[in-house]
């Protein structure tokens, strides 16, 4: 959008878009610890950077000089950081700290250059029984720090930033700080907050005090949180996590929930059990879906139904948002209730029925043409005691949802092209391949992939052989297709 991009230098924009393309490429990138391109949803993208950090724990603890023992937390923190990093204590500023009654205390400090503190070069020290038990820090080299006297006054940039962030500066006093940049420089920045009471946005903005450019923001608003199995994990043995704001505004501009909705019913998918209205409602205010899946009891016990509906909602939405970036958009016949006037037919969000009573030990996806909802049914697996829920084995809903993708994108949204044996086999192979791509997206290594291991409780999974680059592990070749007459078997030849 011209209105908003005007504010950025074109060079910066080019860099941001280039890195956005890379950052968006793989869903596992959410794990990367230093960069995050924040899409503000109105055509503006800013890069949030945190310098590489280093965190150490010291087991029983690291002895510290006895002069530390009765010193206030401020003094202990500054002394430890400056001596450990071998920097002058004037380069370390105590920020905050607290002490617990069991003789544990925690100090937080910021790096300082020319008397000005850093936003993102910080340190934290944990003390216990007069020893240091943990130390984390992200201090940076300041040799390329910008001049500490601003050449652009904060009053000159406020209105531009308000326009970009579509809000008003609040009455918190602006501050002057340093912001460590990905290229090793440190920018001098004006820092202030911009809020919009109507839309609920609330940012802290960092504006270069020499160029006037908006360099970064902190978003204070958490839109929604879900306790789920991140898409780069396969099954609950790898641990569920509480993810905050996993939706991508460029793919789901209004987030994953309907306006005023507080349940697992949204623009891309409705996740329910039994009747479509039987969804999971937030566990606490603010779209928090924090239900813990307990694998030691059956899928219908305790919070497990809510955890399953939440995981299914998250996985299908993440598939939607990720594939959207690769072109599975409204005009390319995707699944959305509201297409926001961007082409294609709406009213066809995925209907995800978890623990569907129609079957066991399987899952399916029915793809009608664009404009009619896809129907995804996930079944309970009865091989183990207690039984296991197919929707908690991420590669299964990812496989099923990919049938929706390939049936819609092959042949122009009519959903009737992958019906012959060989094309159906390609559909199965694509579904396994996309599922693998998601669950392996946090690692650059290519390892053998076996799908469905947890629900079956065996290492061989549901296919005849692992997907593998080794011709010994998986010797299937295209010539084998002629000998096969089942779609999943044909799909394995890939
Ligand atoms: C703690 O640090 C402050 C400020 O540097 C100093 O004035 C004070 O004397 C120190 N207190 C102790 C107990 O070392
Ligand atoms: C609706 O969901 C609840 C759990 O929230 C579940 O106990 C119940 O069986 C579901 N209803 C039907 C008809 O499946
Ligand atoms: C999974 O299989 C192992 C043996 O292969 C068995 O000991 C274990 O009880 C099984 N787990 C469940 C939950 O059925
Ligand atoms: Zn399939």
UniProtKB/TrEMBL annotation:
Domain of life assignment: Eukaryota
Keywords carried by this UniProt record: Hydrolase, Metal-binding, Metalloprotease, Protease, Secreted, Signal, Zinc, Zymogen
GO molecular-function terms, A-Z: metalloendopeptidase activity; zinc ion binding
Cofactor comment text: Binds 1 zinc ion per subunit.
Listed EC numbers: 3.4.24.-
One Pfam family in the UniProt entry: Peptidase_M36
Cofactor or coenzyme needed: Zn(2+)
Cellular compartments per GO CC: extracellular space
Protein name: Extracellular metalloproteinase
């Amino acid at each position: 959008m011209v209105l908003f991009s005007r504010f950025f230098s074109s060079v910066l924009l080019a860099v941001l878009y280039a890195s956005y393309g890379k950052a968006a490429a793989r869903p596992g990138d959410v794990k990367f610890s230093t960069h995050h391109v924040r899409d503000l949803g109105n055509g503006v993208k800013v890069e949030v950077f945190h310098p590489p950090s280093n965190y150490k724990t010291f087991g029983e603890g690291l002895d510290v000089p006895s002069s530390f023992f009765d010193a206030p937390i401020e003094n202990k923190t500054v002394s430890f950081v400056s001596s450990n990093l071998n920097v002058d204590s004037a380069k370390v500023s105590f920020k905050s700290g607290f002490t617990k009654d069991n003789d544990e205390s925690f100090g937080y400090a910021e790096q300082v250059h020319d008397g000005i503190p850093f936003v993102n070069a910080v340190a934290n020290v944990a003390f216990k029984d007069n020893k240091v038990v943990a130390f984390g820090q992200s201090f940076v080299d300041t040799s390329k720090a910008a001049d500490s006297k601003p050449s652009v006054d904060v009053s000159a940039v406020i209105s531009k930033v308000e326009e970009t962030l579509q809000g008003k500066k609040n009455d918190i006093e602006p501050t002057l700080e340093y912001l460590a940049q990905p290229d090793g420089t440190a920018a001098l920045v004006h820092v202030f907050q911009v809020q919009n009471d109507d839309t609920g946005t609330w940012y802290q903005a960092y504006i270069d005090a020499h160029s006037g450019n908006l360099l970064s923001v902190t978003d204070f608003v958490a839109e929604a949180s879900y306790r789920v199995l991140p898409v780069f994990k396969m099954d609950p043995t790898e641990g569920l996590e509480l993810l905050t704001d996993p939706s991508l505004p460029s793919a789901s501009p209004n987030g994953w929930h309907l306006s005023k909705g507080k349940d697992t019913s949204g623009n891309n998918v409705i996740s329910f059990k039994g009747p479509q209205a039987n969804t999971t409602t937030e566990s606490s205010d603010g779209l928090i879906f924090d239900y813990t899946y307990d694998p030691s009891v059956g899928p219908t016990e305790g919070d497990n139904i809510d955890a399953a509906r939440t995981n299914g909602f998250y996985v299908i939405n993440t598939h939607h948002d990720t594939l959207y970036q690769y072109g599975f958009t409204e005009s390319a016949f995707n699944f959305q209730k509201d297409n926001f006037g961007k082409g294609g037919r709406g009213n066809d969000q995925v209907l995800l029925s978890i623990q569907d009573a129609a079957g066991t030990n399987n899952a399916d996806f029915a793809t009608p043409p664009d404009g009619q909802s896809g129907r995804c049914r996930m079944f309970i697996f009865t091989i183990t005691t207690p039984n296991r829920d197919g929707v908690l084995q991420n590669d299964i809903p990812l496989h099923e949802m990919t049938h929706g993708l390939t049936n819609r994108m092959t042949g122009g949204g009519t959903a009737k092209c992958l019906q012959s044996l060989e094309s159906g086999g390609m559909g199965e192979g694509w579904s396994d391949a996309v599922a693998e791509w998601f669950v392996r997206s946090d690692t650059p290594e290519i390892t053998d992939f076996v799908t469905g291991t947890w629900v079956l409780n065996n290492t061989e999974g549901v296919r005849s052989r692992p997907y593998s680059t080794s011709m010994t592990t998986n010797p299937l070749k295209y010539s084998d297709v002629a000998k096969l007459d089942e779609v999943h078997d044909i799909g394995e030849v890939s």
